[in-house]
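Sequence in, structure out. Go.
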Amino acid sequence: MRRQERECLDTGFVQAVCNAAEYMVLSMVDGGVPYTVPLNFVLLGDSLYFHCATEGRKLDVLAANPAVSACIVGRADLLVPENGAPCNYSMRYESVILSGTASVVTEPAEQRTALAALVARYGGNGAALEERAAASVRMVRIAVTAVSGKHAHIS
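Output:
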């Protein structure tokens, strides 16, 4: 990272950014072409989870190439200078980039745990999930292999 003073690899920082973020942006490669999609997610231990339909482009792309990267921004605020000079604008931000390998969750207990955590993260009652509803989606686990965190103007 060019700006070493902005790098943050602390586990607590990564967790805080993931907890504060409303969504992540997942990047994949579809036949040599970038494919990026915003998704709801939950971080459980060393894995990121997201849900999707039981079939579709995302699953097809991941089956062909499971290598992924996720960008998660917890906070971003424009800092406008008092003099209004365009070259003096800046950003207050905190972000995390996670890389890893994606795989469809096949174990029913892991599927239910991950989906319940995702529902709870966004304000729902994960414990009240019906089996039929849980079976109607796919949960995908990203086994995180690399983490990079960055922040600026955060006190």
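Check: The CA atoms of residues 99 and 146 lie 5 Å apart. The two ends are 20 Å apart (CA to CA).
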